[in-house]
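Protocol step 4 of 5: obtain the predicted structure for the target chain.
Materials: sequence only (see below). No template structures provided, no constraints applied. The aim of this step is simply to have a reference model before the mutagenesis design in step 5. Sequence pasted as it appears in the construct record:
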Amino acid sequence: MTPSSGTFVVTAAGSGHGKTLFTLALCAALRARGLHVQPYKIGPDYIDARFYARVAGRPAYNVDVWLDGEAGVRAHVAATRGNADVALFEGMMGLYDGATDGTGSTADVARILGARVIAVIDCWTSSQTAAAVALGLRAYDPAIELAGVILNRVAGDDHERAVRAACVRANLPVLATVRYNAAYEAADRRLGLDVAAVERRAEAVGALARDIHANASLMALFVRGTAPRRAAAAAAEGADDVVVSRGAARRVSPTHTTTRSGSPILRRSRHCASRAPSPSHSRRCAIVRCPRARAACGSAAAIPNLSLPNWKQTPGCARRSRTPARAAYRHMRSAAA
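Step 4 output (structure tokens):
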């Protein structure tokens, strides 16, 4: 697929290589540059999505080929990207880790969306071999466009020179180098259970974001090509939101209803991820974004923001929200008639 302007996937050779911390810091640095960044997390991990929403200042969304299929992923991203200059995806596990045939992997999502790939290479336990790992990520599937590599956890100047020289020999563009910092290691989120670790991560993200923000060549990779997208967004700014019928919405995506301007009206709540979608279940778990439909449900505060999940929320919320959701659904059907 032809690379999509402003769509990037950050990946690595495996879990624990630093891609989450780097992607969070990159998101913060791009926002500081004045760019609108829409973050996504590949796979069902909802904890990382909370961090991205905090950094980007807008909801973060999960993308899952296994749940939504290729058409559903495309429609979901088109409906949620909005006015973003950059769509930034964090991969899961290693670049090619997925089903036996590779379906659902980070590389699969990059292929579906035509995204450019940035590989975070952990250099802590290797030197020139780190370039060989990056070369393998690029050569395994030539259809994946590797925009460049991030050399993570580099020990010092000599270490950096050795790895960079190997990358030059392999014709691998090095976008940035992240030196080893004990504060970054202490920022491990520990599955979100350690509140102090959450604050340490916020401090680490801020420190790394300042370094990334000062990297002019890395920033230029994202700044290029944003002007046409901003012009197109400005031209469509005045479009009125129109609620579409559920039947039309399901032809677009099995999980999302969109307005004419592309903003989402309905989406499944996070506890739907473990079950197959059904019309009745989707209605019970609907989140209403249309102002008139919100009025039918009560105050806006009564509608949970599931991109920042309430950990006390349980599947029982489906029963609690059943009546207002049905009222909103009836409103939308009548509005679309």
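Step 4 remarks: The radius of gyration is 21 Å. Residues 7-232 form a domain with the Rossmann fold fold (CATH 3.40.50.300).
Proceed to step 5.
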